[in-house]
């Protein structure tokens, strides 16, 4: 360390001083290597699905012809194995193609840094399911909050709340969605798997699903049965009504069934049968939409009756 006029002068390290752009590039390339796939572990709770679809088939063919063009990203774990951060589709494609190694860039990242990089890289996909966004936003926001937390004794609950707001503001800016929309997506992580899958498959609209997420698991499964029984999914108004009953402690199975049997606004009920000779024989107690089931059961009973009479005549 040298001094001049009482001021410290930081001297550049010898190796850094004489390092050329080419040598720096080589140093970076040294972290890109072919790693045995058997030594690479999946990222814990990875929220993005790897689908064996047409895109995967094209990726497999591309890798067979040209190899992996863009390296995957991994980090070295304490046990000497590697953890995959980005490149899950490339890894799967290599396995299908019969390759034993995957070209990877090894990065030194903490757990929370790895989560942030994993989410950022996967949010670039052209198609992202609501469930994928939900768990990705939740994981990243939690990681950002942990990174911003102070560990000294002056840290207060108010400070944690301020940090949480700061993290959500930053996440909203990065992903291009409002904070409210981000929190709506995160609410979807409270849905039971069967209903969350219905959201992914667009059987249930996004906003009603957010309201349903406030129901307990038991209430959600009761709703699932009511949806199957009535062959219908809740509208936003019905979902809000169920949430209000839940908050008042009055959401029973009977209330859920009653709400799901309500006729939705602007919804014209298609008659199950146009023949009045049939409709007038169906009791009014049969729920709307279940008329066909009633008729089928009645016909089954009648056929058994005919069969019994036939057997007696033998």
TrEMBL record:
Keyword Endoplasmic reticulum set for record: no
Gene Ontology cellular-component annotations: chromosome
The keyword Protein biosynthesis is annotated on this UniProt entry: no
Pfam families registered for this protein in UniProt: HTH_ParB, ParB_N
GO-annotated molecular function: DNA binding
GO biological process, one term: chromosome segregation
Family label: Belongs to the ParB family.
Name of the molecule in the record: Chromosome-partitioning protein Spo0J
Naturally occurring in which organism (per UniProt): Clostridium scindens (strain ATCC 35704 / DSM 5676 / VPI 13733 / 19)
